[in-house]
UniProtKB/TrEMBL annotation:
Its EC number is 1.1.1.23. This is Histidinol dehydrogenase. One of its GO terms (cellular component) is cytoplasm. The active site is at 323 (proton acceptor), 324 (proton acceptor). HAMAP family: HisD. The gene is hisD.
Amino acid sequence: MIVKGIKELTEEEKYSIINRNKMNLEEIIPTVKEILDNVKNRGDEALREYTKKFDRVDIEDFKVYKEEIEEAYEKVDYKVVSAIERAYENIKRFHEIQLESIKEWEIEKDGIKTGQIVRPVRSAGCYVPGGRAFYPSTVLMTVVPAKVAGVKRVVVVSPPYGKGINPVTLVASHIAGADEIYKVGGAQAIGALAYGTETIPKVDIIVGPGNIYVTCAKMLVSGSEVKIDFPAGPSEVLIICDEEAKDEYVAMDLLAQGEHDPNSSCILLTTSREKAISIKNKILELMKNTERRNILERSLKNMAILYGDITECIEFSNEYAPEHLEIITENPREILKYIENAGSVFLGEYTPVPVGDYATGTNHVLPTGGCSRIYSGLSVDYFLKKISIQELSKEGLECISETVITLAEIEGLHNHAKTVKIRLQDKIDL
């Protein structure tokens, strides 16, 4: 755990913090490519082989049927079902409002009409990590925006739990509105979604987090065949706080993010050296009686507690481009004005990251590893295509004919020019 002034960081230390947990896929690409090729060429047969090899279970039929979903409801506590339903309503409402902000529009000038229409992709695949672990929140965060966007076929794939899928995952998939559910995971599941098999028809877009093999597979299939959301790595948080922030809140928020994964990145930027040391001591105190201590002890090695003035903190945060950004200061909205890069922002002392993970309605599938510089978090927009339209009257064509003809001819595309000339032959010379 580094405790240091921002200005005191060496170039090597700063580079190490900013360029955290970059995934090295080179070593696993051949293995993942072989899996994808096998699934593409051999379909369900390859899926069965890899499921037996990696999940240690024989599955003949990967599809989940209505009876299995009904059985899942009997196994899941009502309190859990109720929590999933409440989270679903908030997530659905947020993404419905998000959809309303994406407009179709049209303008007209001089007989030239141009505009934009919006259409959803036809099908989407949502990868949900599974096996003994279960992530109902990830089901909601991937399926709900797709359904709100109007995608007709939304598929959930998740690694098997025994010969089925974890009951909580099944219940969440049903509540979210998934059209199809398949018990298959890993790189082989990504191959099935990308290329299609006898059981699993291909999809147009694949979203959702996974391990390094899943991430690598998504990147390899991305292109003309299928679209993906973005590469996702270990979870991360960056907190900007001032002297008035409560040590216990800040320390617990850092520990909460650190318990995800030994490779999680937790960064604190504060406005005084005394505050930095005080929060470090609080972290060590809380560590004595915390769950998942074995993971936290490893993730703390990636933690940096840095101090500087508020301008330095903001500049460092923008350069870091965190997945989650908490601002716990006297006036967090004033700081927000200067934030350029972040996956999702949490304002004030009563807004820890877990509220966005589960219940506020914002999406928790977010870019990591500095990718918030160029990517947004998952949203309805990922499942939509914006199609431009144009309609010209004869007068409109006349208005821009000289521009079109001149540019077409200078590029040597004379038939392009003639498509305009032939329509205006009563007005111009062919």
